[in-house]
Specification:
The protein is of the alpha+beta class. It has 2 domains: 84 residues, Translation Initiation Factor IF3 (2-Layer Sandwich); 104 residues, Alpha-Beta Plaits (2-Layer Sandwich), CATH 3.30.70. The chain contains 5 helices and 9 strands. The longest helix is centred in the C-terminal third of the chain and has 25 residues.
Length: 235
């Protein structure tokens, strides 16, 4: 009986100590997002060799005169220069072709990136380039040179938002917030910068062609977002 009493007392004391030392916490999430203007627009153009007979209404089996990639590229570069685009703005992205039609020569293709400063210039390119052999034109990437700094700022804003929320919730219980215990970025993709989708762009271009221009409303901003989970100690 005495032994049982002593055990009961020990358990009671441990329980009391645990209660006194318990850290009261509050867990909240904070989010911040920002729209950022791009500094640069990457306009991607794909060209490919073709058969002269394609444009003469002849049947495929009669195609025999191949227009070489060098001539197509020179024509395209000339058009770009006429629009005020320098060679320093043009980069070869890839070249080649791993497939050919049976009984025909390979049709070599090239893809180039053109660095532009505005959507107006991208619009001008899309509606001006007439070189035969151009297969595809898309806005493939938006760039802001300060995006890494901006993403850090957005994360800091998310943490501040979490703290403000914690203060508000704690005040409802007549409590105050003390130190932060943990900060976790809960979405590893939250700071990804969405890229314009080539297919979506192509559809928009097709729909607006008859109106005499291409709308870039969906591509005018970069959207960056941060979400964090914070645990604060509460008095």
């Amino acid at each position: 009986m005495i032994a049982l009493t002593m055990v009961w007392v020990n358990i009671s004391l441990v329980g009391q100590a645990t209660t006194d030392n318990m850290i009261r916490t509050i867990e909240v999430t904070g989010m911040s997002e920002r729209s950022v203007e791009p500094d640069k627009i990457i306009f991607t153009i794909s060209i490919e060799e073709y058969w002269k007979e394609e444009f003469e209404g002849k049947k495929y089996e009669d195609y025999k005169t191949k227009i070489e990639i060098e001539g197509i590229e020179q024509s395209l570069v000339s058009e770009l220069k006429a629009l005020g685009i320098g060679m320093e703005q043009i980069t070869l992205k890839q070249a080649g072709n791993g497939w050919r039609q049976r009984g025909k020569d390979f049709l070599v293709s090239k893809t180039i990136d053109v660095v532009l400063e505005s959507f107006a210039k991208a619009n001008e390119l899309f509606n001006t380039i007439k070189t035969r052999g151009v297969r595809n034109m898309t806005v493939s990437k938006l760039i802001n040179d300060n995006i890494e700094t901006i993403k850090l700022e957005v994360k800091a804003e998310a943490i501040k938002a979490a703290k403000s929320k914690a203060v508000l919730l704690a005040a409802a219980l007549d409590k105050k917030i003390k130190d932060v215990i943990t900060i976790v970025e809960i979405d590893q993709y939250a700071n990804a910068i969405p890229r314009p989708q080539p297919m979506a762009y192509a559809r928009a271009a097709s729909m607006d062609a008859e109106a005499g221009g291409v709308a870039y409303e969906n591509f005018k901003k970069l959207e960056t977002k941060a979400v964090v989970r914070c645990v604060f100690e509460m008095e």
